[in-house]
Structure formats: structure tokens, C-alpha cells
Amino acid sequence: MQTSEKQNERIAKMTFASVYPHYLTKVEKKGRTKEELHQVITWLTGFNDQDINRLINEKSTFKEFFSQATIHPNAHMIKGLICGYRVEEIENPLTQQLRYLDKLVDELAKGKKMEKILREP
């Protein structure tokens, strides 16, 4: 699925620090924890807690954030709709990676078991 160039540019310039509090609020409202959110972020990106905090403090854009990430080899198993797009059909790699993260946070907030979220056999 094609996303617009304007949308892709907007995503690239957005900062992780501006979105992170929304992720945290979303999962905590549903009874999940900051630790579980970090576990999901770590699974997808390879970042540890120190990395996550550094990226927030540096106000890293999502372009910078994902350029430093080591995307999990099973990330391609993340499927479904997020923001009206099928994540597996998004062609722009950066936009797809952000939507992977959005989808994982969504699944966490919806109460899915961690093994399912982390695509463990």
C-alpha cells in the first residue's frame, strides 16, 4: 500500500519524544506497564532502557530512531490494520517500521499476551 510522500516526510520528522508519552498513557490506561512497553520497543528495535531514554532526551526524529535500530527478524510477522493501513503492505520502510511499533503498542493496550505480541512460537 502506498502512503503519500508528504505523510512519509511528516513521519520521518516526528520525534520519538513527542509520541512516547502517548504510547505510555495508552498502555497504562489499559493496565499495562512502562516495563512492558519498553519490552515491546526493545523487541522491535533492539534498544535497551538506556537507549530509549537517550533517544527521548535527544528528541530523535523517527528517521534517526529507526536508522539506529536493529529491527527484529520476525517483524515481518506483524500484520493487520493500523491507522487505516495494512502494515504488511506499506511500501516505505520507515513508515512501515513506525506502523509496526504502533501495532505492537496497540496489541499491548488491547491486552494481548506478550508471547503473541513478540511473535514467539
TrEMBL record:
UniProt-listed InterPro entries: SP1917_dom_sf, UCP033199
Source organism superkingdom: Bacteria
Gene3D superfamilies according to UniProt: uncharacterized protein sp1917 domain
Pfam families documented for this protein: DUF2200 (PF09966)
Name recorded for this polypeptide: DUF2200 domain-containing protein
Organism the protein comes from: Echinicola strongylocentroti
Taxonomic classification: Bacteria, Pseudomonadati, Bacteroidota, Cytophagia, Cytophagales
